[in-house]
Specification:
Elements lengths: L13 H10 L15 H9 L9 H12 L2 H10 L4 H11 L2 E4 L7 E6 L5 E10 L4 E9 L9 E8 L9 E11 L2
Antiparallel strand pairs: 1-6, 2-3, 2-6, 3-4, 4-5
Length: about 180
């Protein structure tokens, strides 16, 4: 897909995306992926595609990006992002509208795979420290131990790149809040 004719909105800045994501830190899930303590938060996630029983990290990331983009770019976000983290990353890369890569940037969507399998995790990059090979991410469906299965929206310190781990999260792809050139 060509990016000709697409325009970024004023809300599509990395700082705005991070501010949107930070707003939700502390939101809590009810047990069993049955819903959320805050009905307004649940309504927004539902509008972004969450259904009871779904893991919701990727839908949380989509929900945040839906706030930043409008028009044709919002249509791309709505069409390409879904509850599957790895599938969403693959969809965005294939669509070719947003730039993608392996170096984190503030405001980017970050997608992880769990080992080499099809399941994964997603978040929003809040800050980057390349010197220490870390990034701070705001993630839905996480917990205090940093699991990809959790009960809240939280900020997590993550390693950017490391040796592949078969039992943990591995960075898969970043989708940047800018058009592919």
């Amino acid at each position: 897909m060509k990016t000709e004719g697409f325009k970024l909105s004023v809300d599509a800045t990395p700082a705005a995306i991070v501010a949107y994501a930070r707003w939700y830190i502390g939101q809590l899930e009810k047990k069993g992926n049955s819903g959320f303590v805050d009905p307004k938060f649940e309504k927004e996630l539902t509008e972004a595609g969450w259904r009871k029983g779904d893991a919701w990290c990727a839908t949380f990331a989509k929900m945040v990006w839906r706030k930043a983009f409008d028009g044709d770019l919002l249509a791309v976000v709505n069409k390409q992002l879904n509850p599957g983290a790895k599938a969403s990353a693959d969809n965005m890369k294939k669509a070719g509208v947003f730039a993608t890569g392996m170096v984190p940037e503030v405001g980017a969507l970050v997608y992880f795979t769990h080992g080499s399998g099809p399941s994964g995790h997603a978040g929003i990059v809040e800050s980057v420290d390349l010197k220490n090979n870390t990034m701070k991410c705001i993630e839905g469906n996480t917990n205090a131990s940093g699991s990809r299965e959790g009960d809240r929206v939280a900020a997590k310190l993550r390693t950017i790149s490391r040796a592949f781990t078969k039992d943990g999260l591995n960075v898969y792809l970043f989708v940047y809040p800018r058009l592919k050139s």
